[in-house]
Write a sequence for this structure.
């Protein structure tokens, strides 16, 4: 048995070879192409790009294929690749009001300037398995409408005109880059939003849900949810002006939350904010709920001791790559530590037995 | 070996791997910078290491990078090693004291392929030893680096979960909570009920987590000739013990610190002063004890030392 440990290198190589074979599956069937994954599993691709913090649908598709569809593993592959990339510089802040929206809805107004656009959504579909898909049925092309005008204003800005919604402070300060600086607490809202944007969808979903069930309830409406493409611009020092370097698909959510007012502020509405790469409504809404819950201190609200209000708790545990690594590392050998505990427990049991014996006599 | 080494240059930060979806099988030394990390990241880590060495036992925050192995599997140690390596280094990697455990193998081959450095299993031949959970049995020497992989760098974490609080406690040397915990252990169990990751005090100031080494290894940290570096990747902390530092395991005058090991001698090499692993041999629960430090054990066997079961295993290995 002791000798068996020596085969480690060969065992690892064999395990990886087996993994490759299992990934491929039965060769009777065609291998997945990256095009198929990118085009037909677009929401998986979106999640991998968002939590991997790298906008590249082709690489995300590759990661999903390599990870056998395990999205956290795929996100890990993307993160590990991302850190090796050089930093050319930072893009200018994107202007989401210039988004070419494929979807734009508001729960707070029946109609909105520019109109409600449902876009490609699962909402209102009946969740009945579609057996035509199993038979590879082709679909008809969707009908087309006129594109929205260039500029689609944010709905919450309409409330802002009446002073009904808290105004966010504008700042030109450089935000900290969380991938280049260690997390310091307390964190600015910019840092919190960065962490949430790459945070685990499931973790944020659970936390956001908990705020709705009374753990730091802040009663949110979706003021606006929009999905679409936006241009990314970068200032080129040699040119002296910004140029467009590409465009990305993002989902943005602004929630409107009740606010009773405090000693210094009259009652007004406040916002929670969520923004992610790709089409990711669930994540973005949850992110906005958690963002709003984390703002209790600046808004003069009470600390109710809820998990979603606890910045250190949320930021330390929302990253699924950190979480999965540490949770899974307990399968690594720990026999040296276990041996030490074993000896201590044996020693304490011997002493306890001796004491009991002495007491019996 | 040496011709594989890529020489770091000033603009190495732009040496990104080729974005080529077709190239699945590439030689790591061609695609990545020496020892994987880019030079800018290494510089950042070296600065942090210098600060850590200047303030022994103090946890210095650093912008830990995502590595191609999972958090919790040695990413902190790997980053520290990558920042310290030179092409002339000779690397040894152990996990649980053994060179042949799977994660040790994996990390050793990572540096063999990304840095092209020599590797060894011999403790005295290594210029840099990365370790998880053990300190080698033989005394380390000047010029050697011992890099520990650290899961939770904060010795106070299980008494106070908040980083914002524990940093304050360290700044004020406010360690009462720890002493109360140790005292309560004694009053409840008659012992300090910590068998590994046993807290130490460094140079009379910072209380430090020695990483989850068995407390048997704690005394080896004291007055050690080698430089001891600790990397916690997920927790983004690096700390260090410079050579010949005073490192004291926490205890009380009437309950002094004691080392703990399985009683007896190694069944293979007969050593009666090394840390032993307990190996279950059969369904009946028959046990044997062998050295956890595989290099220590095999060196002794080569020197002719025998244990009471060495014959059994020599034949199988041969």
């Amino acid at each position: 048995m002791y000798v068996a440990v020596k085969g480690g290198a060969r065992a690892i190589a064999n395990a990886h070879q087996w993994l490759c074979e299992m990934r491929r599956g039965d060769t009777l069937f065609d291998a997945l192409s990256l095009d198929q994954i990118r085009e037909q599993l677009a929401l998986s691709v979106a999640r991998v790009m968002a939590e991997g913090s790298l906008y590249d649908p082709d690489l995300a598709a590759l990661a999903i294929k390599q990870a056998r569809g395990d999205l956290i593993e795929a996100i890990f592959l993307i993160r590990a690749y991302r850190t090796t990339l050089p930093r050319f510089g930072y893009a200018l802040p994107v202007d989401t009001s210039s988004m070419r929206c494929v979807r734009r809805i508001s729960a707070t107004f029946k109609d909105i300037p520019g109109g409600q656009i449902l876009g490609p959504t699962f909402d209102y579909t009946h969740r009945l398995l579609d057996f035509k898909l199993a038979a590879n049925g082709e679909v008809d092309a969707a009908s087309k409408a006129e594109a929205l005008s260039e500029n689609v204003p944010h709905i919450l800005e309409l409330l802002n005109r009446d002073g009904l919604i808290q105004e966010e402070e504008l700042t030109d300060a450089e935000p900290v880059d969380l991938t280049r600086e260690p997390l310091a607490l307390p964190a600015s809202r910019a840092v919190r939003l960065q962490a949430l944007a790459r945070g685990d969808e499931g973790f944020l979903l659970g936390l956001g849900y908990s705020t709705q069930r009374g753990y730091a309830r802040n009663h949110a409406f979706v003021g606006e949810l929009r999905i679409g493409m936006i241009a990314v611009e970068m200032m080129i020092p040699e040119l002296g002006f910004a140029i467009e370097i590409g465009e990305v698909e993002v989902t943005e959510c602004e929630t409107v939350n009740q606010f009773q007012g405090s000693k210094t502020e009259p009652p007004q509405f406040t916002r929670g904010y969520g923004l992610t790469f790709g089409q990711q409504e669930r994540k973005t809404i949850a992110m906005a709920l958690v963002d709003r819950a984390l703002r209790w201190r600046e808004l003069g609200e009470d600390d109710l001791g809820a998990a979603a209000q606890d910045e250190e708790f949320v930021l330390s545990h929302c990253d699924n790559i950190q979480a999965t690594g540490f949770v899974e590392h307990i399968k690594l050998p720990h026999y040296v530590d276990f041996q030490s505990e074993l000896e201590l427990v044996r020693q304490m049991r011997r002493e306890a037995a001796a004491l009991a014996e002495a007491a019996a006599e | 070996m040496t011709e594989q080494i890529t020489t770091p240059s000033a603009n190495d930060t732009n040496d990104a791997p080729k974005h080529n979806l077709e190239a699945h099988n590439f030689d790591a030394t061609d695609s990545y910078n020496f020892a994987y990390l880019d030079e800018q990241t290494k510089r950042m880590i070296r600065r942090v290491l210098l600060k850590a060495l200047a303030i022994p036992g103090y946890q210095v925050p650093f912008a830990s990078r995502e590595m191609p192995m999972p958090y919790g599997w040695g990413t902190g140690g790997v980053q520290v090693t990558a920042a310290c390596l030179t092409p002339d280094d000779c690397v040894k990697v152990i996990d649980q004291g053994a060179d042949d455990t799977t994660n040790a193998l994996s990390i050793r081959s990572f540096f063999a392929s990304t840095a092209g450095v020599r590797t060894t299993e011999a403790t005295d031949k290594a210029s840099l030893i990365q370790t998880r959970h053990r300190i080698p049995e033989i005394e380390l020497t000047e010029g050697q680096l011992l890099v520990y992989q650290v899961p939770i760098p904060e010795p106070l974490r299980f008494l106070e979960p908040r980083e914002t609080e524990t940093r304050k406690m360290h700044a004020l040397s406010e360690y009462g909570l720890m002493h109360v915990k140790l005292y309560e252990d004694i009053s409840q169990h008659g012992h300090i009920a910590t068998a590994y990751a046993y807290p130490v005090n460094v140079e009379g100031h910072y209380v430090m987590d020695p990483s989850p080494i068995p407390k048997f290894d704690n005394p080896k940290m004291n007055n050690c000739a080698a430089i001891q570096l600790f990397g916690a990747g997920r927790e983004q902390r690096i700390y260090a013990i410079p050579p010949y530092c005073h490192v004291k395991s926490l205890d009380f005058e009437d309950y002094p610190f004691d080392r703990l090991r399985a009683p007896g001698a190694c069944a293979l090499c007969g050593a009666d002063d090394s840390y032993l692993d307990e190996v279950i041999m059969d369904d009946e629960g028959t046990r044997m004890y062998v050295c956890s430090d595989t290099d220590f054990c095999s060196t002794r066997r080569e020197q002719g030392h025998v244990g009471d079961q060495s014959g059994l295993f020599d034949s199988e290995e041969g």
